[in-house]
């Protein structure tokens, strides 16, 4: 199901697919998704730039390679989805808002749970990045596969 959905983007060189949103940057300590570097996003109450969020999102092979090569110099924010969005923000990238990848409530997320324990899987073509919700992994080096499902370490 997911592979077929992403296959239509394979020919696009720089595509970023997911449930796109722009939420308020949370500056208050102790809150879920608190961003310690909130001040970098402007005045209190500002919003993040549009980025893919939720249980799953994908990037093209070219973008996955770019991230893999430049990972040592890419800044990481408190939330991995914001980090990924920041890394792609200044690049010529096609953002695709695929609402079917949104996951607001547990019932919406059931099919995503069926796909394994990965919070996010970024793969179009043969390059792959994966995330467990806090850290990005190079899929080929750090992820195991069982019955077609990606499993993080």
Indicate the mean pLDDT: 74
Tally of helical segments: 5
Shape: globular
What composes the largest sheet?
Answer: 3 strands, mixed
Give, in order, the helices and strands. Answer: HEEHHEHEEEHEE
How many domains is the backbone divided into? 1
Low-confidence stretches: 116-128, 138-153
The count of strands amounts to 8
Distance between the termini: 24 Å
Secondary structure class reads alpha+beta
Strand content: 15-25%
CA radius of gyration is 15 Å
- Sequence of strands across the biggest β-sheet: 2-1-3
Helical fraction equals 25-40%
Membrane topology: Single-pass type II membrane protein
InterPro entries: Glyco_trans_31
Family: Belongs to the glycosyltransferase 31 family.
GO molecular function, one term: galactosyltransferase activity
Question: What is this entry, summarized?
Answer:
This protein is α+β, with helices and mostly antiparallel strands and 153 residues long. It has helices at 2-7, 61-70, 80-89, 106-114, 139-142, and strands at residues 15-21, 51-59, 94-97, 120-123, 128-131, 136-138, 144-146, 149-151. Strand 7 (144-146) and strand 8 form a beta hairpin.
Furnish the topology, listing elements before pairings.
Layout: H1 2-7, E1 15-21, E2 51-59, H2 61-70, H3 80-89, E3 94-97, H4 106-114, E4 120-123, E5 128-131, E6 136-138, H5 139-142, E7 144-146, E8 149-151
Parallel strand pairs: 1-3
Antiparallel strand pairs: 1-2, 4-5, 5-6, 7-8
Written description of the protein model:
This protein is α+β, with helices and mostly antiparallel strands and 153 residues long. It has one domain. The protein contains five helices and eight strands; from the N terminus they run αββααβαβββαββ. It has a three-stranded mixed beta sheet. A three-stranded antiparallel beta sheet has the order 4-5-6. Strand 5 and strand 6 form a beta hairpin. 29% of the residues are buried.
């Amino acid at each position: 199901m997911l592979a077929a959905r992403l296959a239509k983007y394979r020919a696009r060189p720089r595509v970023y697919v997911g449930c796109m949103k722009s939420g308020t940057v949370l500056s208050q300590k102790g809150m879920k998704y608190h961003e310690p570097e909130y001040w970098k996003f402007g005045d209190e109450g500002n919003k993040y730039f549009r980025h893919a969020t939720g249980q799953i999102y994908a990037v093209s092979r070219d973008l996955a390679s770019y991230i893999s090569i430049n990972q040592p110099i890419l800044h990481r924010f408190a939330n991995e989805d914001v980090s990924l969005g920041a890394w792609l923000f200044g690049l010529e990238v096609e953002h695709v808002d695929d609402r079917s990848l949104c996951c607001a409530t547990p019932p919406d997320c059931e099919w995503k749970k069926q796909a394994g324990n990965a919070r996010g899987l970024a793969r179009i073509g043969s390059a792959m990045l994966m995330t467990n919700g806090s850290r990005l992994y190079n899929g080929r080096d750090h992820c195991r596969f069982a019955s077609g499902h990606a499993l993080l370490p």
